[in-house]
Amino acid sequence: MAYFNKAILKELIPVYPSILIVFGYLKLSLYYQFFGVQIINFIDFTEIIILFLPDVIYYLVLLSLSVFLHYVIAPSGYGAFVNVSEDHVSEKYLVNRFIKYFKYHFWYSISLIICFILVVVAYYLHRPNFSFLLLITLFSTLLYILGYFLSEIHRKHLLNSGKQLSATVHNIISVIVLFSFFTISNVSKEIRSSLNNPSIVNFKYQGNQIATNSECVYLGETRNYIFIQDKSSENAYVYPKDDISEFIISKTDESLILLQLLTR
Question: What is the pTM of this model?
Fold first, then answer.
């Protein structure tokens, strides 16, 4: 359990905020870049943190879940995923090392196989919990692959330097891989939502009434700007909020309506 002592946490505390800020900007940049908007020109540093805050909470929950899974399923707790055994280091063939990894994490491996079977069954039976089950399965699979990937890094480092990879480096790699996966996943989900199930907005801009529809979709907003894309021309339009009044935003489901008035 040495990988989660106080000394390591003290080393990681200054690093994690930087990682969160980087991935906060990365998420916004990837999303708006898809629609041709250079978001860096319309956002300030504090907004990156504020807009990314819901994802920070989401990631912390996922990280807590990953630690829980490591401790519950791994035979020797969290350290079982990072400590490299002598036979793993000495084994030359990748396939044989993976077989050893599978056997060492036997119950985790079996649990994944069962989850994949349940996902297939739920999909063909059109069960409503299919998406949640798929997410859990993909997340567990990611942890499994990450554990093997890190064991290979530990092995390579041990062969080259004769020393174990530091816990700090190990944990930073883990966080970066997990955040990368979920950032890309969230961006993809938000892009599909904006294109297929966009919010409907109406507002006055410099005296003209602006309204979105199936061809002119609302992309999002920052503190000072609103972004809309014309799907037919694939042009993105940026509206400064200082020139906007009577802003109304509603979901496509009319039972869920949120009104917000912006004053100059």
Answer: 0.68
